[in-house]
C-alpha cells in the first residue's frame, strides 16, 4: 500500500538498555499512528527506513567528531547524565552503540525527503536533530539528520536547493552553522528569543520571538514564510515541526511560549498548506517535544499532511 509516512518501532531507544535510570522522550510516532488508525478504522501504513552510514554522516560532520561518538563519555555529556543516573553494569548494550538508533532515525529523515520528491508531502515520525554542529553534538542531538539528508540528496543530484523551515521552540542553530555561506540551502528559524541556546547562530532568516509578543507567533511566522519564499526558490522543504512551543510541553526551559493547541494546529496547517499549494515537496520531522501530551501536536500535523495528500478521514476532529 502506498504511504508517505516513515517510521519504525525501533525509534524508541529505551535508555535502560544502556544502563541509565532516566526517562527519555516518549515515542510520539507510535502514539500518532495509534490515533490515526483509530480515525480511519484501519492500520496506517508506513515505510521502514534504512540506517544512514558513516559516509552519510561525514557529508556534514568531521571525522574527528565522528570518532568521539565511540566514547561513552561523549554520550554522557551530550545527554547531560549525572553519575548517579548511570549504571553501566546493568546495561544490555554498550553506550556508544546508541549511535545505531540515531542512524536509523536519521535514515527516516532521508527516506521522508526522498518520498516527498515522489509524493509531494511526506513525514518522518521522529528525527529533527537540528542542534548538532559539524564538530560537536549538542542539545540531545548527536548527528544532524536534516543537514545529512540535504547533502546526500544534493550529492546524488535529486535536488539542488533546499529550504529549512524550523519552528521548534529552540533555534535551529546546528543547521544554521552547517549551511553557513552555502547559497544552495536557506535556513529559516522562528524560535524563542529568551530560550536556549543562550548564544544564537546566524540563519539566513531568524525570527526570534519574545515571551511578551507570543500572541503574534502566527503572524510573525506567516510573514517570515513570505520573506523566505521571496528570497529563495527551493526544490524541497524540510519542515522542523517541533511541538515544544505547546502549552503542555513539560520542559521547564520552554515556559516562555506555552501556545494553545489551536495555535499549533494553525501553524502546521499554514506551513503544510503553503507548500502543498505551491507544489513544492515538503518533508516534516518531529524535532523537540517533551511530556505525555505533546504527541497531540504531531497527530494534528500528520493528519493535515495526509489530508493534503488526498486521504479522506470522513469526519472532522474535535480540537482545541
Q: Could you describe the 3D structure shown?
A:
The chain has 320 residues and is of the alpha/beta class. It has a single domain, classed as Histone deacetylase domain (Arginase, Chain A, 3-Layer(aba) Sandwich). Helix 1 packs across helix 10 (295-308) and helix 8 packs parallel to helix 9. It has 10 helices and 7 strands. It is globular. It has a 7-stranded parallel sheet with strand order 1-2-7-6-3-4-5, with helices on both faces. The protein has helices spanning 28-40, 54-57, 63-68, 72-78, 99-119, 145-155, 173-178, 217-231, 261-278, 295-308; strands at 5-6, 121-124, 162-166, 185-192, 205-209, 236-240, 282-285. The longest helix is centred in the middle third of the chain and has 21 residues, at 99-119.
How do you describe this structure in short?
This protein is an alpha/beta fold.
How are the SSEs placed, and which strands pair?
Layout: E1 5-6, H1 28-40, H2 54-57, H3 63-68, H4 72-78, H5 99-119, E2 121-124, H6 145-155, E3 162-166, H7 173-178, E4 185-192, E5 205-209, H8 217-231, E6 236-240, H9 261-278, E7 282-285, H10 295-308
Parallel strand pairs: 1-2, 2-7, 3-4, 3-6, 4-5, 6-7
